[in-house]
Specification:
Largest sheet: 5 strands, mixed
Radius of gyration: 29 Å
Order of helices and strands: HHHHHHHHHHHHHHHHHHEHEEHEEHHEE
């Protein structure tokens, strides 16, 4: 999700912003509501250089988690409700919208029994923002109206102005969805969005706070850009004038780039360059701007020089743009690694303490047992029975530990999936995005094994009758081919987790290949998958009715190389047949001897 805030210097929200051509304008307008709600974000008067965005986000999440634990320890319901609200903001910043929603709902359940309030309205507006990011119009509208109801009851003018901005954003989102899929949402219109922005403008002028007025002008200008850049120019210029008077470097840079974009769309590159040079001067003199803003400036410069035919300068600025994008991705990666490392160290210490305590308890009991055995044989029999019960508990405890290990492995793979998804959204190169998305499906294939282990009673084995259909149908859904019904011929086979992971990766590549080259282009697509056990060997076969392929060409692809590597790792025998579609068979021992690579 790509967003842009104008005035407030808050890297939690700025992390979502990427290139100009990828942004969703309705989301920009909605997220600005947080600037209007009192006490949420600070307004710096002297901007400073911001630390890496990704690490800052994870540091903020860790601090908020500590605040939540401290609030729970106090037992103060208001502190707990506020901590839940803050946790929702942090997870929303990561794009984990379902988790964010759960935290917001917990905050509401604590506060709503005490009656309407401005902070409840603020929470509903946050929930509306969450739903808009997921393009869920009805849910977003319901939460926006609940937020408006609360702030109206307590007569908060500032809160009403914020609610108007959210309602405008909901209509703008619905209008954009309708433009992509006509008739999918009823009641949403761009005129309604502009009406609510007009109401917000009226309240902002009445409250007479320059920061709010400039922000509303910016939001309305962004909405008017959907009708035409010329209509947006007056509002963007008024917002720029306010930022200039307040000496807000961040806002000045944003508005300068925005105005340059408008003039470029009007084919007036000379005027666009004046605004871009102004943004560059502010950046260089104030040492302001971070990854996303600097990359946006460089990308707009590249567009300018492309429009004027100066390809050498356009290429130079495009190179700088990619450098900033790469630096941003590295910062996110370092932040994620920092969070995982901190979590790992914390869990390792916790497990070590539990193991040490368990060891001490075991020693005490064994000492007592030895003493009692010397006194009386009958008492020893009783103690032996107690010892049996103790070891049974230890066995159950170890089983729980293995289950917890599978759960944590599943969660860690989910974290990697989220990180790959975040990086995929930042990529503009189609080939790079495709490569990341294919890697994402491979990670999900591995995560599926650990999910099956966690959900079943078998701690280290996977049921192929459940695993294979779930894997195949997940890949089909990811390529929007969920209406295809594969033909399965599966026997009840349980495989070790390490074997199932390799088998899942191989099957993922076969189905992905079919989704890309066979199924979409056939009027009656057919996909057949079977897995049987015969005389101590597993036989897997895969077939589609696509056009097939030339083995010498397909063999050069990464997917085919991966299939060959996995086949050798399983010490199996694989064979492709390309007549009348793609057909693949694989056989290997039930307990294969793995080949060291």
């Amino acid at each position: 999700m790509n967003v842009k805030l104008v005035v407030i210097h808050n890297s939690t929200h700025k992390n979502f912003m990427q290139s100009r051509k990828q942004r969703n304008l309705w989301t920009q307008s909605v997220l600005t509501l947080v600037l209007l709600l009192p006490g949420i974000l600070p307004v710096p008067t002297a901007p400073a250089q911001v630390p890496p965005t990704g690490r800052l986000l994870y540091d903020k999440l860790a601090k908020t988690q500590r605040d939540y634990q401290a609030a729970m320890a106090t037992g103060d319901s208001e502190q707990v409700a506020q901590a839940c609200y803050d946790m929702g903001k942090r997870y929303g910043a990561f794009g984990e919208y379902v988790t964010a929603e759960n935290w917001y709902v917990r905050s509401l359940r604590i506060r709503e029994p005490h009656g309407p309030s401005e902070v409840i309205g603020k929470t509903y507006l946050r929930l509306s923002e969450n739903w808009m990011r997921q393009k869920q119009y009805q849910s977003a509208m319901r939460c926006a109206r609940l937020g408006m109801s609360n702030v109206r009851i307590v007569n908060s003018k500032h809160g009403i102005m914020s609610a108007y901005i959210v309602l405008a954003g909901v209509h703008q989102m619905g209008w954009k969805v309708n433009r992509e899929n006509p008739g999918s949402i009823s009641g949403a219109s761009l005129d309604s969005s502009l009406y609510y922005f007009g109401q917000a403008e009226r309240l902002a002028l009445k409250l007479n706070k320059p920061l709010d007025i400039g922000l509303v002008y910016y939001c309305k200008g962004e909405a008017l850009m959907l009708k035409g850049s010329r209509q947006a120019l007056p509002y963007l210029k008024k917002s720029y004038a306010i930022q200039q008077s307040l000496k807000q470097a961040y806002g000045i840079m944003n508005l300068s780039i925005e105005l340059a974009e408008c003039y470029l769309s009007l084919k007036q590159p000379a005027k666009a360059k004046v605004w871009l040079d102004q943004a560059a001067i502010v950046r260089d003199t104030t040492r302001h701007g971070e990854y996303w803003q600097n990359s946006l400036l460089e990308e707009t410069y590249a567009k300018l020089y492309q429009q004027t035919g100066n390809w050498q300068q356009a290429f130079a600025h495009r190179e700088k743009y990619h450098d900033y994008q790469l630096a941003s991705l590295n910062a996110d990666r370092e932040g994620a690694m920092s969070r995982i490392a901190t979590q790992y160290e914390s869990e390792k210490k916790e497990i070590a303490l539990k193991a040490q305590q368990k060891h001490l308890d075991t020693q005490k009991r064994l000492t007592l047992l030895a003493t009692l055995l010397a006194l009386l044989f009958g008492v020893a029999c009783v103690l032996l029975f107690l010892l049996f019960r103790k070891y049974r508990r230890i066995s159950e405890y170890n089983a729980r530990l293995v289950k917890e290990q599978n759960h944590r492995a599943k969660n860690n793979l989910q974290s990697i999936t989220n990180l790959l998804g975040l990086q995929s959204n930042r990529l503009t190169d189609p080939a790079a995005r495709k490569a990341v998305e294919e890697s994402l499906m491979r990670v999900e294939a591995m995560a599926l094994v650990h999910r099956r282990l966690y959900d079943s009673d078998h701690l280290a084995e996977v049921d192929l009758m459940q695993f294979i259909p779930e894997l195949v149908e997940g890949v089909l859904r990811s390529y929007s081919l969920g209406d295809i019904q594969p033909l399965y011929s599966l026997s009840p086979i349980w495989l070790r987790a390490d074997v199932a992971i390799n088998l899942g990766l191989l099957l993922n590549e076969l189905v992905t290949n079919a989704c890309k080259y066979a199924l979409p282009h056939h009027p009656a697509p057919v996909l057949e998958i079977g897995c049987q056990e015969e005389k101590g060997r597993i036989l897997l076969w895969f077939s589609d009715n696509g056009p097939g392929f030339t083995p010498t060409v397909a063999g050069n692809s990464f997917g085919m190389k991966l299939i060959d590597i996995i086949t050798k790792k399983l010490n199996g025998k694989g064979k492709f047949e390309t007549e009348k579609g793609c057909h693949f068979t694989l056989s290997f021992d039930v307990k294969p001897s793995f080949v060291l690579q």
